Amino acid sequence: MKVQGLTIQENNMGLLSDPNRRRALISMLTRLNAPICVVCYMAGVAWFMGLAFEPFTLRTYMSENAMGSTMVEERFPAGERALATGREFAAHKKKVGGMPVDWLVKTMQSQGLEVFTQRFSRTLPFPDENKERYVVEGTNVYGILRAPRAPRTEALVLSAPCSPGNNNNQAVGLLLGLSQYFRNQIYWAKDIIFLVNEHDLIGMQAWLEGYHHTNTTGMDWSPLQGRGGSIQAALSLELSSDVITSLDLVLEGLNGQLPNLDLANLFYAFCQKIGVLCTIQGKLQRDDWDTASGYSHAVQTMMLMVLKQASGRPWGDHGLFLRYHIEAASIKGINSFRQYKTDATTIGRLLEGMFRKLNNLLERLHQSYFFYLMPSLSRFVSIGYYMPAFGLLAVILLLRALDLWVQLSALPSRTEDGIADIEQSGPGVLSVLTPLVISHLTGVALYTLPIRSQEMAVEHFPVFETEAVVLTAIAIYTAGLALPHNTHRLVSGEGTEQGWRVLKLVAVLYLAVLLGCTALINFSLGFILALTLVPLAAFITPHVPKLLSALFMVLLSPGCTLFFSIFFFQELQETPVNLQEGWVLFLSVISQGILDHSLYGSLVYPLVALLVYPCWLLFWNILFWK
Amino acid sequence: MAAPLTLLLVVAVTIRAALFRSSLADLIAERVEVVSPLNAWKRVVEGLALLDLGISPYSGDVFHETPLIIYLFHFLVDYAEITFMVSRKFVSSFRKQKYALEADRYPLDCLELIRSPKEMYYIPLKVAMFYLLNPFTILSCVAKSTCGLNNAVIALFILCTIKGSALLSAIFLALATYQSVYPLTLFAPALLYLLQRLYIPVNIRRPSFWWYTLQYAFMYLGSLFVIICLSFFLLGTWDFLPSVYGFILSVPDLTPNIGLFWYFFAEMFEHFRLFFLCVFQINVFFYTIPLSIKLKEHPVFLIFMQLAVISIFKSYPTVGDIALYLAFLPVWSHLYRFLRNVFLVSCVLLACSALFPVLWHLWIYAGSANSNFYYAITLLFNVAQILLVSDYFYAYLRREYHLTHGLYLKRKDGSEATLVLK
C-alpha cells in the first residue's frame, strides 16, 4: 500500500527511520539511564588513569625529516668563559640595580651582533604580591645574528630572563657565550635573535607584541628598531647555578597550549646523545613501568602536566610565543644533591645542537602532535587516546538530556498541540529565561567587579588592594549561591514540574557544549571540570535531600575544585601544605588568575566567571526549585 | 497583537544597537560564518570608495555585490547602520502580514490535526520572534552583512505572492534573483501558488495553464531584464556580470565558510574543477523538479523547502541565510508531533554553532588543529540541516497521509500499524 511515498509495513531501514527500533532504543536508554551513566563515569575515569600505563602509550619519535636524519656536531667550547661573563653580568646588574642595559648593548655589539633595545611600561590592575610589582618599567635588549647562508626570512630565538636577585645570571652568561660562538659559524640559514628580557613574562609580552605589531593587552612599549624574519622556534633558558644535575623541560604555555611534540623530541634526543639527565615536570623517567611504584610515578608526572595545563598560565617565558604560532619551550637547569654534575660547556653544546637542527628546518614544525599528554619524556598520549576519556564523561550529559527530553514529551501538556501549548509556553520560557539571565549577570559581576571595586574596598575595609580583589571575588561567588534560587518565583509564581525539567535540559545541554569546547582548546581544564560537574549535573533534581545535596554541590563547585587542585598539586610536587598555607595559596592563585587574564589574555578566569560558574548556578537553582 | 510585536521590535533593535556600539561588532564582522565574500560590509565600503574615485568597483577582486546595492548604499552610507535595522524591521512586519493572510488558508483541513484559530493568531508573532531574536540573524545584522537585504527582498516576494499580486511577486523575485541567482528556483512554487489561487489546474494540456505561466514568466524575465539594464546604465559597463554572477557560479574564492564548496574545491585537481562545479551547482537547482512535482498542491511548503535547499547548497552560505528558513519553522508547528529527530538535530546544530569559532581558533590562531577539523564541523552542520529539512518534509507528507486516511491506522488484520518512509 503506497500512498505519497509512505508505506505501511515493517522494514529495516536503519535506526533513525525505523520507528520500532527507535522506540526500543529510546526505551532502553531511559530505563537503564542511571546505570549506564554510572558505568560511563567509571569507564571515563578508568580510561584516564589507564593513559599513564606504559603499554597504552606511544614512544616518542622524531617526525620532522629535516631534524631527524641530519647529523650535526656540537663543538661549543667556552662554558667557563660564559660563566665568567655571567658573573660580570651579575656584578653590573647589582651596580645598576636592575637590567644593565648599557653593558649588555656594549657586550653584544662587541660580538658583532645588531643590537636593539625596547622600553616598555605597564601598570598592573592591582599589585602583584607574589612578585612584588605594581608599576612595571623595563627594557628588553636583543641582538640579531644575521643569517649568512640564506635570505633572512626566518629566525630562531634564544631568550634568557634578567631576574631580580641572583637568579638566572648563568643563563644570561651562557646566552652571551653562545652568541659569541654562533657569530663565528658560517652555517646559519636563519637569523638568530638573542633576547634578554626584563620582568619575565611582561617583558616577553612587550617584545612579542612589538615584533608582531599587535597590541592585545594595552601595554606601552616602544616600537622595535630591528627585526629578523618570521620566528620559527624559540627556546627560553633558565639557569641559576654553575653546574647542574639535570635539565627540566617546560612545555605548558598560555591557555594550555603546547608546542609541537617534535620540539620535546628534539630536546630528549640531544639529552640522550650528550648524556644529560633530563626531566619533565621535575620527574625523571623510570624503566619499571610494570611495578606499582613505576606506574604511580607515571601517573604523577601526567597529573602534574594535566594540572599545569588546566591552570592556563604560561609556566615559563616560552608560554607567550605559542600564541604567535611559534613553537617554544623553556629549559630549566636544576641543581640537586646528585653526584653526577653537568657543566656549562655541556649545556652549551646541547643548545648548540638543538639550534643547528632547528636551523635545518625547511618549514615550520608541524609533522608531529600538538595535542598530547606526557607520562614521561619518552612516552606520550595523543589526542585520539585521551579524548575517549572525556567523551565517556560527556556522553553522560547527552544521555541525561535524552532522558529529560523523553520525560518532557511524555508529559500530557506537551503532546497535544493547541491552546494548552500556548499557555504553557509563556511561563515556561520565562521560568527558564529568568534563572539564565540572573546567573549570567552574577557571572558578569564576578568578572568585572573585583577589579573595579578595589578602591572602594580598600577605603572601607582594612585590606590591601590584592586582598581586596580576591576577597571581593570570593564574596560575589558566595553571594551568588544565595541570590538566584528564589527569583524565578517572583516572575512566574510557583515553579512547575515541567519547569525544572526544561531548565535542567537547557542546563545539561549548555554544560555539554561548554565542556566540549573547553576540552578541545584545553583538554586538561575540560576534563577536570567534567570530572566534578558531570556527576552533579546528572543527579540534581528538586527531589533529592536538600542539605546533603547542597553540601555536595558546593564541594563540587568550580571554586572548590580549584581549592582541591591546589592541595593535589602541592602533594604531587612533594611539597604538601596544611590548610592554612593552602588557603593563602588559594588566594594567591586567584589573584594570579585575574592578573594572567589582564596581563597576557589568559582565558581561564573569564571562562570560569562568565560561563562555568553561571552554568553551575543553574543546577543550584534546580536544586532549590519550588 | 500589535503590542507584543512592538515590544519584540524594541527588544530586537535594542540588542542590535547595543552590539553595534560594543567592541564585539568588529569581531563579528570578521567571522567567516557570518559574512561571505559576497556580502561583507568591508567589501561594500571598498566598492563605494572605488566608485567615489571614479574607478569601476569591479576592477579588482574585492567587490562582488550587484550595482543596485552599491548605488543604494551610495546615498545611504551615512545612515548605513540605521538602514540595516530598518531592513530587519521590514522583514518582520511584512512577515507578520503574510502569515495573517496565510492563516486563512488552512482551516479547510479537518480532524484533530488542524490548528486552532487561537494558535494561528500567534504564528506571525512567533515567526517575527524566530527571525528577530535568532542569534544568527543578530550576528549577521551586527556584521552589517548585506544578506539582511537579500532576506528582506525574499520576504517581500513571499508576501506579495501570498497576497496574490503577480506583478509585484515577479518584480521581487527578479530582484532576489538579480541579487544572488539562486532564488530562481522559487519561480516554480510562486507560479504554483498563483495558479492555485486562481483555481487554474496544473495540467500541461490546458491552454489556460500555459497562458498564465507565460504571463508570469514574461513579468519575471521582463523585470529582470529591466533591472540588469538599469545596472548597466548606472555603471556604464557590463563588468558586473562576470564579477557578480561569475563569482557566484564559478566559486573562485575559497575562503572557509559554513558551506560545502570551499574544502572540496581547495582539495581538487584543477582539471576536474569544471565538472564538479557543474555537479555542485546543478545540485542546488535540481531539487526544484522532484519537489515541485511532489508538493504541487502545497506551494508554500515548497517555498520553505526551496529556501532551505538554497541556503544549504549555495556557494557562499552564511548564517543569515539559515536564519531565513529557520524563521519559517513556527509556521509548521502543527507538524511537531510527526517530527522524529528534533532533539538530535537541535543538539547537533547547537553544538556545531559553538564549535565553529572554537575550531577556527584552533586552526587559524593556535595553529594546533587544521582545516579538516573545521570542515568536519561544517559537514556535520550541513548534515544536521538536511536532516532537519527532510524531517519536516517527512512530517508534512505524513500529516497529509493522515488527513486522508485518519489518524489511527489499522492494519488489515486489525493490529496497530506504523508508518515507514520508503
UniProtKB/TrEMBL annotation, chain B:
<comment type="similarity">
    <text>Belongs to the PIGU family.</text>
</comment>
<keyword id="KW-0812">Transmembrane</keyword>
<keyword id="KW-0256">Endoplasmic reticulum</keyword>
<keyword id="KW-0472">Membrane</keyword>
<comment type="pathway">
    <text>Glycolipid biosynthesis; glycosylphosphatidylinositol-anchor biosynthesis.</text>
</comment>
<keyword id="KW-0337">GPI-anchor biosynthesis</keyword>
<keyword id="KW-1133">Transmembrane helix</keyword>
<feature type="transmembrane region" description="Helical">
    <location>
        <begin position="244"/>
        <end position="265"/>
    </location>
</feature>
<feature type="transmembrane region" description="Helical">
    <location>
        <begin position="181"/>
        <end position="200"/>
    </location>
</feature>
<feature type="signal peptide">
    <location>
        <begin position="1"/>
        <end position="25"/>
    </location>
</feature>
<feature type="transmembrane region" description="Helical">
    <location>
        <begin position="272"/>
        <end position="289"/>
    </location>
</feature>
<feature type="transmembrane region" description="Helical">
    <location>
        <begin position="153"/>
        <end position="175"/>
    </location>
</feature>
<dbReference type="Pfam" id="PF06728">
    <property type="entry name" value="PIG-U"/>
</dbReference>
<keyword id="KW-0732">Signal</keyword>
<feature type="transmembrane region" description="Helical">
    <location>
        <begin position="301"/>
        <end position="329"/>
    </location>
</feature>
<feature type="transmembrane region" description="Helical">
    <location>
        <begin position="212"/>
        <end position="238"/>
    </location>
</feature>
<dbReference type="InterPro" id="IPR009600">
    <property type="entry name" value="PIG-U"/>
</dbReference>
<dbReference type="GO" id="GO:0042765">
    <property type="term" value="C:GPI-anchor transamidase complex"/>
</dbReference>
<dbReference type="GO" id="GO:0006506">
    <property type="term" value="P:GPI anchor biosynthetic process"/>
</dbReference>
<dbReference type="GO" id="GO:0016255">
    <property type="term" value="P:attachment of GPI anchor to protein"/>
</dbReference>
<protein>
    <submittedName>
        <fullName>Phosphatidylinositol glycan anchor biosynthesis, class U</fullName>
    </submittedName>
</protein>
<feature type="transmembrane region" description="Helical">
    <location>
        <begin position="372"/>
        <end position="394"/>
    </location>
</feature>
<feature type="transmembrane region" description="Helical">
    <location>
        <begin position="341"/>
        <end position="366"/>
    </location>
</feature>
